[in-house]
Amino acid sequence: MVAPRANWKGFIKFGEVAFPVALYTAASTSERIAFHTINKATGNRVRREFVDSETGDAVERDEQVKGFEIEDGRYVVLEPEEVAAAIPQSDKTLRVEAFIPCDEVDDVYFDKSYYLAPDKMGGDAYKLLRDGMRKAKVAAIAKTVLFRRLRTVLIRPHDKGLIASTLNYDYEVRSSEKAFDEMPDLKIEGEMLELAKHIINTKKGEFDPKQFDDRYEEAVAELVKAKIEGRTLPKKKALAASKPSDLLQALRESAGLTAPAKTKRAVAGAKAGKGRQKAARASAPKSRAAGGQPQRRAS
């Protein structure tokens, strides 16, 4: 098995203690199914090309520069060396600025996570920081230049080591007010609330990532396989949302207090079918004479 490649190497420093560390990607999308863009007419791959928006001429890489739009159609052009000079200088050091309670940072600020491992020497200091934070139940806030940007990093004890998560800046996190401004002003209480609590309690469990499958990847893989084999997949029926007027009934069905409507319809249909069969038997001509003996044909 090939050893993972570090995304970044440097030092971590808390107080006057410093030791070498390395960052390794904690989650990767490299195993996901990837598509190429194909020319439908020829079956050939399409090549991406940058063109001038006015002339339509292709622009080679060495002719491309960064530009900031100051008004419609007008840009401040930045040369590559100017952009490079503006990037903060990195001394490859994660400087711990504070230790905070582990649950103090809202999850909405989390960006990407990396395993923070000791690099070569410094194992003792690494364990000291890890065990100290674990005992105090705190996380560390640190800053450094990562991938050409000054980043704030949250460092927490994780398994046998530490995990470092880059954090979004405050201006990057949008307010939730607009997302929830159309929430209906309703007070849920009584039977509906009790049923909801009951359903929640019966569904309590523990998080196990192995139990959750990537349905999209599985569906795409099955689609590719079906196309290769020349067959089509059946269309899935769209899931209908519960209507507000049916919410209480849906809660009762979820709690097992009443049978689902479709089950009731099926049972009613089965009873109706049995009733029709019984009526048909009752109206059919009798094959036996009175007294239960078979009738004889006239000779």
TrEMBL record:
Biased composition (Low complexity): 280-292
InterPro entries, per database record: DNA_bd_Ku70/Ku80, Prok_Ku, SPOC-like_C_dom_sf
Entry-linked SUPFAM superfamilies: SPOC domain-like
Keyword annotations of the record: DNA damage, DNA recombination, DNA repair, DNA-binding
Gene3D superfamilies (UniProt xref): 2.40.290.10
The keyword DNA-binding belongs to this UniProt entry's keyword annotation: yes
Domain Ku: 56-185
Assembly mode: Homodimer. Interacts with LigD.
HAMAP family linked: Prokaryotic_Ku
Job of this protein: With LigD forms a non-homologous end joining (NHEJ) DNA repair enzyme, which repairs dsDNA breaks with reduced fidelity. Binds linear dsDNA with 5'- and 3'- overhangs but not closed circular dsDNA nor ssDNA. Recruits and stimulates the ligase activity of LigD.
Name listed for the protein in its UniProt record: Non-homologous end joining protein Ku
Biological source species: Neorhizobium phenanthreniclasticum
